[in-house]
Automatic annotation (TrEMBL), chains A, B:
CDD domains: HTH_LacI, PBP1_LacI_sugar_binding-like. SMART domains: HTH_LACI. SUPFAM superfamilies: lambda repressor-like DNA-binding domains (SSF47413), Periplasmic binding protein-like I (SSF53822). The keyword Transcription regulation applies. Keywords: DNA-binding, Transcription, Transcription regulation. This is LacI family DNA-binding transcriptional regulator. Residues 16-70 form the HTH lacI-type domain. The keyword Transcription regulation applies. Gene3D superfamilies: 3.40.50.2300, lambda repressor-like DNA-binding domains.
Length: 367, 367
DNA sequence: GCGGTGTATGCAAACGTTTGCATATATTGC
DNA sequence: GCAATATATGCAAACGTTTGCATACACCGC
């Protein structure tokens, strides 16, 4: 019987290893290894010889073996609630690009907004011996032991966007508060005074902060808090439509603007208003959050806060790299806060819009 | 001097290995390994003991070591031109979900539509010892040697969406021809007879096939080919707008419908028509390709062909798994062809639309 | 002529698994 | 009672790197 290792199909030639190079050149594997990793103690002549042969034989290093020996792989684990959808896809794009530049590969996992799955993801990534983990929490994560394990192992852990309620972690977040503040100020400057708000689940930091920005902006104009004007929901299209209905039906004559903590909900509101022949922005101005692609397509186009998705991904990787460098990463706890950017479009421009600034921002579909 | 292995910060306790378990239970590592992998020759009592201890000590297997020994990792490499954007993000979602179910992790790489980068991605993935590679070609890949290398190594290779012009590969593709045919037939059934077409770059199989479907549908109605009604472009928003201008200006009175091989271009056309007060669909019906999220948001909503992104990802993984199973994968060359699905919306419904079927498909935002 | 330093190379032991080839006992069939 | 089979376990060699600790030679300064 033929030995098992000899395949019937001979197309699968085994890749060549450092041992092969060493044998060919009559030197030790040490020399090969050092030549390839540009060690100082290898003579230029030897180094050249090795590199040339490696290229000629098309040598491919086995990262696995190296990682095993060094206890340090070139893999970064990323956990997101889901990958489809503009925000996370773009963050992941930023992560992959930055990681690749630093010589790291990216493993993605999806928690599907499920804590149990998230826990499993963490275990998987640890088993894969990743050099670090970047994670955006699932919607209802409230048990953090699985992350303790990561820290115990001394593996850099960076949160982004959806973070732990604690300042003892490394995190990259958007200044959601400022986003809420900016957009509300903008609505106020347009002359709106009865501004409603679609608020998301308040156990999530992002929605809480957006709401607080809204409130503080109102206060800066000496407008009192009116809880009636705040609608809490899961921010779906239907929630937006229904929320708009509620706000219009308020006893004091409704609202003249709405700041929604999400774009999908504000789209629902827009559709509702159009179906009721309410003019946007003349009768009710609208503004959302996330700068989804469709905000530049609706009629009128929707004002929204951009979340700097790509920058967030890059920043997360940068932070990870810093942690890898510093030997006492267990102590380093850094927070990176990104400034959001307001995209002003038709839906919030009362009076005569400055068409110059408008068109520039509006025509670019953020896809 | 303290030994190097002993860290100053003791927080980083080294993870426990099979050797630890073996010592603790007084058995050999073989037994541990076999118990954990459910080998038949391990007694149920021993198996239980091992599993219990493993759970108690929170043992995490080192995939790297296993992969090194077995020469087979649990990693799938995925190369896409870019990850942001609905199509690829959703495909990757499908891939990750299916791969995860089968116990595989996914490494993503972006070629950024650049052949050189794509080549690099392949090398990287081979170095990472992936069990297989799934790839959607960069826009201008025309040199295939880097893929030959993959096959030489006996590593399963599956193309999806953008594939090689050859039937000696494993591939998952959409039936673009049928998509073009379906949508054109639909326009014909609506009574349109002067149907224009926005065609993409003809060196890409997908655009060529969509165009052919369009032509054959016309022929099925005994309508002659009129090259004047076909506008070739890169399918951007501006291309769509400009293309629409051209088609309206045709000597024979313009067109009464346009099938665009991409949604972005059809959006441009819609914007142009609205600016010229041309009624859609009454005067000109529109239909696109890709079923982008915004097609359900525009007014009127846009008819489009759905590409089954998620199914494509799943199918690619299924195909990969089949290749892994079959030992002579080098010979197996399978093509999976997915059927596109036409989403009929307002932009193409002449006369009295059947509101029942319409609303069901239209309200769901494919996000 | 000796310690110091810089250059150039090799030996062999790790890293944590998996697995072919033993070994040992118990059970079964004839 | 003996071969065949099933059950249960262990030894030790792989897998392809990296690296601490040698070894060896050359040159320099004193």
């Amino acid at each position: 019987m033929a030995p098992r290792s000899k395949k019937i199909v001979d197309a699968t030639s085994s890749p060549i290893s450092m041992a092969d190079l060493a044998r060919e050149l009559g030197v030790s594997m040490t020399t090969i290894s050092r030549a390839l990793s540009d060690h100082h103690s290898i003579g230029p002549a030897t180094k050249q010889k090795v590199l040339k042969l490696a290229k000629k034989l098309n040598y491919q290093p086995n990262h696995l073996a190296a990682a095993l020996r060094k206890g340090q792989s070139k893999l970064i684990g990323v956990i997101v609630p889901y990958i489809e959808g503009r925000f996370f896809a773009t963050v992941v794009h930023g992560i992959e690009t930055a990681a690749s530049k630093a010589g790291f590969n990216v493993i993605i996992c999806q928690s599907s907004e499920d804590v149990a799955q998230e826990r499993k993801n963490v275990e998987t990534l640890l088993s894969a011996q990743v050099a670090g983990i970047l994670v955006s929490l699932s919607r209802d994560t409230n048990d953090f032991r699985h992350f303790e394990k990561v820290r115990k192992r001394g593996i850099p852990l960076v949160f982004f966007d959806r973070v732990l309620e604690s300042d003892t972690v490394n995190a990259v977040v958007l200044n959601d508060y400022d986003g809420g503040y900016q957009v509300t100020r903008h609505l106020l400057e347009q002359g709106c005074r009865r501004i409603g708000h679609f608020a998301g689940p308040q156990h999530l930091n992002i929605y809480r902060n957006r709401r607080q920005g809204y409130l503080d902006a109102l206060e800066s104009y000496n407008l009192p808090l009116d809880e009636q004007r705040i609608v809490y929901s899961d921010m779906t299209l239907e929630d937006g439509s229904e929320g708009m209905r509620q706000l219009l039906a308020l006893p004091d004559g409704g609202v003249d603007a709405v700041f929604s903590a999400g774009d999908t909900a504000v789209l629902g509101a827009l559709q509702f208003l159009k179906s009721k022949q309410v003019a946007v922005p003349q009768q009710v101005a609208l503004a959302g959050f996330s700068n989804e692609a469709f905000t530049a397509i609706t009629e009128p186009m929707l004002t929204s806060v951009d979340q700097r998705c790509e920058e967030m991904g890059q920043a997360a990787v940068r932070l990870f790299l810093e942690l890898v460098e510093s030997q006492d990463s267990a102590f380093l706890q850094r927070q990176v806060i990104l400034q959001p950017r307001l995209f002003i479009r038709e839906s919030s421009l009362q009076g005569t819009p400055s068409l110059d600034t408008l068109s520039k921002q509006a025509t670019k579909i953020p896809c």
